[in-house]
Amino acid sequence: MLKTSDKFETFYKFNKINEKSPIVFIHGIGLNNEIWDRQVNFFKSYNTIVYDIIGHGKTPLKKSQMSMKDFSNQLLELINELNLKKIHLVGFSLGSLIARDFASSYSDRLETLTIFGTVYKRTEDEKRVVVSRYESMKLNKDVSKKRALARWFNEDFIKKNPDIYNKIYSMLERNQHENWLKVYKIFVYHQDDDISIKQIKANTLIITGENDIGSTPSMSKNISKIITGSEFKIIKKGKHLCNIECAENFNV
Hints:
Blueprint: E1 2-3, E2 11-15, E3 23-26, H1 37-42, E4 48-51, H2 68-81, E5 87-92, H3 94-106, E6 110-116, H4 124-137, H5 142-152, H6 155-160, H7 162-174, H8 177-188, H9 194-197, E7 203-209, H10 217-224, E8 231-235, H11 242-245, H12 247-251
Helix pairs in contact: 2-3, 4-8
């Protein structure tokens, strides 16, 4: 468990097994590197890196305003400090947007790219829903966190796995509210740029949960048409955090 020496002071965990390119995982809004525990365990014979994005977990947020480039630069600084020429990159939700932005500029640093739970070309109704959610989050009410978990996991899974529910809820509770809002605003008002997306040249896999209502299968299917040679996969019965709920299917 270390922090980078650059301006971002990124908290990360590097499970180094050999000199091969590692798998780097990027989490989503309000969460931290621990959402990837099931993947790190599954890929324990591989090099893996998990880290906390700016303003989350143990990585500080020092700016009054943030942009997507801040997050891409954070990742670039991390892999440069670790002297990594290439990586396998996996990004979830906001992390998928970070991964997309990074890949559009630095495809030469990628062995593979996995985009998981991404958004693409929201409809006007979908935009209104996410803006309304953002406005509700400003009030910092407990109900908004509970609604998030209801969107992220199937009800039956929550009932059977209260420990996981409590773990994720605790992550949301520990966020500094002002930082969370600064980052969430980037996600809410994100504008897709097809020209930038078409710059992605890495071998790309796009994954979504069958029942994900915010990052829908149709969004992932449509962006797969833009990224040349990409593969599209649906996780059956999965919602937003299907890397946890449907880990066995997700990991393979």
